[in-house]
Design brief:
FAD/NAD(P)-binding domain, globular, Enolase-like, domain 1
């Protein structure tokens, strides 16, 4: 089968869906085809490790738009379809079924695949990752037979999964190779707070611990640490990051390592090919122009808007401030900015009251905030990050002074 569409979007996640919607809002008159590897229409992924896993949200509530709306906007989908090959010279992609789809413009929005353990037993039944609805459904189907769960990885996915399972009454052990959780994305103040919260909810956190192998025959029964200790496990959830799904595009000659390199207009090095979302390696102005991949809904949506404008001939630059959130127990973390490279922190508020903010500085300038149950700080602190404001630490820590009232 041969098809053709003016814009072909590969990837039906947040980024792909947002790009298709943005094109129609810009009155793009051409045909739009979205190719998705999963059988479902675009849906929200963050709740998979939170409310959906904890059975407090139905899948229907996760859909970004109902099917009727996509039809009204004349956006076509090819679902349950993987693109294996990109031919940039012929302006076409080839699917796993051998279908050839021609494009005038290609948007690569494939996200990534969960990074897998590379040890004996990693393929046993009961070893899971969380990236898709199918992943979460497999975990939920296993849940009735699980008493002891082991989470490998102390990033946000691991912590959110630990919170969901602990809330469901499971005995949870979380294994982190580094000396604290969130070590790659946050400072020690936030890490120690979350470690305390999880321990208070019964989660056994093992820091500076590495996995030697997964034990069991057909199904997992335990996790062997390099220390020689075996932790009992009826289920293992691996949350150690993702690998960007870019092989077909880089095989076609697209530049980039650990992602597809794009410019500030989301254009790759291939003609008429753009990339957005988790797989896009881009120069981020809030990281002093360094190349980054940002795995967040914010980045997916905002890059999608830029890509849509680029396709329509409006070359705006991607300059949006990064933000992110995480729900664990009754704690809502809201992050704005990028804390990488900070050289000082200020704690605003009292962590013991479970409402506070960590403000990150570099060379005396505010670069990011982590706000726990402190929405006002999050909303008001965004301006300080955008402006790179230089503010004395004693002023930032004074909760009698609203962040919005700090002089520019």
């Amino acid at each position: 089968m041969n098809k053709k569409s003016d814009v072909v979007i590969v990837g039906a996640g947040h980024a792909g869906a947002a790009c298709a919607s943005a094109l129609r809002k810009l009155n793009f008159p051409g045909s739009i085809l979205v190719i998705g590897a999963e059988p479902e229409l675009p849906y929200e992924r963050p709740p998979l490790s939170k409310a959906y896993l904890a059975d407090t949200k139905r899948f229907e509530d996760l859909l970004i738009h109902p099917g009727s709306l996509w039809q009204e906007r004349n956006i076509e989908f090819m679902l349950d379809t993987v693109v294996n090959t990109v031919d940039s010279e012929q302006h076409c992609v080839i699917t796993d079924a051998g279908e050839i789809v021609h494009y005038s413009t290609l948007v690569w929005a494939t996200g990534g695949a969960p990074r897998q353990l590379r040890c004996q037993g990693s393929d046993l039944q009961g070893v899971h990752s969380i990236r898709t609805r199918a992943d979460a459904d497999r975990i939920k189907a296993d849940m009735a037979h699980v008493e002891h769960a082991v989470i490998i990885g102390g990033g946000y996915i691991g912590l959110e999964a630990a919170a969901a399972l602990a809330t469901l009454g499971k005995q949870v052990t979380l294994i982190e190779a580094l000396d604290r959780v969130l070590a790659r994305v946050a400072g020690a103040d936030l890490a120690h707070f979350y470690e305390s919260e999880h321990r208070a909810h019964g989660v056994d956190i093992r820091l500076s611990s590495a996995v030697e192998s997964i034990e069991g025959h057909d199904r997992v029964t335990g996790v062997l640490l390099t220390s020689g200790e075996v932790i009992k496990a009826d289920m293992v959830i691996v949350g150690i990051g993702i690998i960007p799904a870019t092989h077909a595009l880089t095989a076609a000659g697209a530049a980039g390592e650990n992602g597809v390199l794009v410019d500030l207009h989301c254009r790759t090095s291939l003609p008429d090919v753009l990339a957005i979302g988790d797989c896009a390696l881009h120069p981020n102005l809030f990281a002093e122009g360094q190349l980054l991949r940002i795995e967040s809904v914010q980045n997916a949506n905002d890059q999608a808007a830029v890509a849509a404008k680029t396709i329509c001939g409006d070359l705006v630059e991607y300059r949006k401030i990064p933000w992110f959130w995480s729900d664990q127990y009754d704690l809502k973390l809201q992050t704005v900015g990028l804390s990488a490279g900070f050289d000082d922190t200020v704690v605003r508020g009292d962590p013991s009251l479970r409402s506070f903010s960590v403000i990150y500085l570099r060379n005396g300038k505010v670069i990011a905030l982590d706000c726990v149950n402190a929405m006002k700080d999050y909303v008001q602190g965004k301006r300080l990050v955008m402006e790179g404001a230089s503010v004395a630490p004693e002023v930032l820590s004074d909760t009698s002074i609203y962040l919005k009232d700090i002089p520019h």
